[in-house]
Known about the structure:
Blueprint: H1 3-16, H2 20-30, H3 39-46, E1 58-60, E2 70-72, E3 74-79, E4 89-97, H4 107-120, E5 138-144, E6 154-159, E7 179-185, H5 197-209, H6 216-227, H7 233-252, H8 259-272, H9 277-284, H10 288-299
Parallel strand pairs: 4-5, 5-7
Antiparallel strand pairs: 1-2, 3-4, 6-7
Helix pairs in contact: 1-7, 2-3, 2-5, 5-6, 8-9, 8-10, 9-10
Amino acid sequence: MNEQDSIMYDESFKSIFAYKAMLAITLKSLIPEYKDSSLEDIRDKYIQGDIGIDSDKIVTSGPGVEDGHVRYDVKFDALLPNATDKHMKIIINIEGQKNTTSLPYRIVTRGIYYACNMVASEYGTYFSNSHYENIEKVYSIWISMSPNEKEKGSIIRYRMSEENLTNDFREDKENYDKLEVVIFNLGRIDDYSHITYNERKIMKSLTEIFSEHSNKNDAIAHMEREYETEFPESMKEALVNVCNWNEVFEERGIIKGTEQTKLDTALRMIAGGKLSFEEIASYTDLPLEKVQELAEGKSA
């Protein structure tokens, strides 16, 4: 596989979330504020504006780790079903992660960083001066395609909570409930009783779609029946496309290939100069330190 293959896989995955139909399913399934809303209302009334996704990841101002900015796969606003004069919407970031086993950090830590950056970026748009009461809640959702065995089939939430150590005073939750990170690890599990009905539906549907052993068209048709909706043909093509790329990776030995294949691929990606070291490590399943060593050797 060459560097262009990797970029195409990344773009194929992101293209799925250019469709409000998929975003609506994600919001209803993973964000509690929308659990009682219909998919039609989420898609047509609550999700704001067009979802623009292209080869250049969405960049927001503020200090970051790549080119001085944080780069998001998908980022958009959504009106709250129970909006008030004080809080009208939430800000949502969705990231796709093909492989996490080779990364030197845990995804939750990166998710917290992204969420904090989104909160900081609200200054000047959602609030100004010292009006911190106008900060809107943010969600950073990470969809892991190939989690390790212990994490498969899990949905993990990280959120702010209150602990008063001296008396029974309680702060209003809306004053501190400002960010949440959701890690969605695809995978089949035997017992779905510990997750909600909406979480159960999206876990089964996306796991089946992204399984290398399933019939993609049948899996997509099942998802349409499950959610009583019809996806646009272009969205179906995007779903099949990302699944096909996953199978190409497997066949060409990038995820489960020889060490030399991984090294050769990493060198080509470094030479291309379009991917960060972290992205190259994720694509090739090489440790980040090894990718950095290869880059240093190439520039020497």
